[in-house]
Amino acid sequence: MADAVAVFDRTMKSYWLVIGIVCIEFLAGITRADEPLPRQWSASIRWENDTFGGSDRFYTDGVSVSVAHTGRSWLDNVVDKLPWRSERRTIGYDVGQIMVTPSDTKLPVPDPGDRPYAGLLWAGLSIHSEHDNTYNGVKVITGVVGPWSLAKETQREVHRLIGSGLPQGWDYQLHNEPILNLVYEHRQRYMIAGDSESFGVQAIPMANAMLGNVLTQAQVGGQLRVGWRIPNDFGMTLMRGMVHLPPPKHESGLSPWKDWGFYVYGGVGGNLIARNITLDGNTWKDSPCVDKEWFVPAAEVGIAVSSGKFIASFSYVFWGKEFKGQEDYFEFGALTFTWLF
Question: Which pLDDT score, from 0 to 100, does residue 31 have?
Fold first, then answer.
């Protein structure tokens, strides 16, 4: 018990370190006189949950909170060495939690042929680079998988509050393991019809690669957006990606409801997966696991509303079968809110 408390204490200290860096960056942005352009800050929250699909199984919940800013940062020396042109840089900090469960959470001893219980708690550091209609992003994620993620306590408390049955099999979740994952993503934006000041149609093809003990995979896909005054950004993403993309470009001092717009969007993609810790189990210890599918298709539809300083979106995601014996694909919804300041 003492060892568990000590490790948990170290994990929480890492999250407070992230918060401390954000505060230092914010104060530096206020006091720095040689900033060539004023910093633009944003705060974002993303929530993904299968309740929107009327189920409580597999990938059941994910939540992440992010703070980001444009302009100079303590990572300038690193960003300057990256192999792509950049006219707008954004540094993002985020924390989040993910939980996955088998299809039947009422069993005290989970079915060994079903997806195992797993929870992840992480902190992430992102570098976003934009040039004209091109986006490149890299991200480092660290944290823990296993009981120290507090996924068991989170899900049981939420179920208790809403009066739902408590999941019974969390004692058989994956073991504690530190996680480290790298993410790279590339996006290209094309205006197919219209323009950004009125009605427009945009296409955003993308490619993503992840490497680490959580996810090692390659992903390709794209989104199509149709709407009025589509914001100057690069679309939506998922937890299984950059999680948060840089906010739309905006003018300093813009009225909160000036230049409002809305759009609908749809996307398709495919994931080629070499490793998924929530399916393959722990890296160095024996743990519950299932035989994963190597290729997983996905699709989504959604709607977004934006103003000068605010954007809100809702996505509905269809995710293909992830392991052998899975009877059907599953669905989940996602809400994203971003505020620019």
Answer: 41
Domains defined along the chain, listed by start: 2-340 (2.40.128.140)
Confidence band (pLDDT; 50, 70, 90) for 250?
low
**Which helix (H) or strand (E) element contains residue 23?**
helix 2-31
Q: What is the mean pLDDT of residues 7-29?
A: 50
Which ranges of 211-326 does DSSP label H, i.e. alpha helix? Answer: 277-280
Whole-prediction pTM value? Answer: 0.86
Question: CB of 311 within 8 A of CB of 254?
Answer: no
CA 228, CA 30: separation in Å to the nearest integer?
34
User: Using an 8 Å Cβ cutoff, are 261 and 225 in contact?
Assistant: no
The CA distance from 61 to 334, in Å, is 10
User: Helix-strand-coil percent breakdown of the chain, rounded to 5?
Assistant: 20, 45, 35
Q: For 31-35, which contacts have Cβ atoms below 8 Å and span 24 or more sequence positions? A: 32/72, 35/71, 35/72
d(CA 259, CA 215): 39
- Measuring CA to CA, which residue among 162, 164, 55 is closest to residue 104? 55
Q: How far apart are CA 142 and CA 183, in angstroms?
A: 12
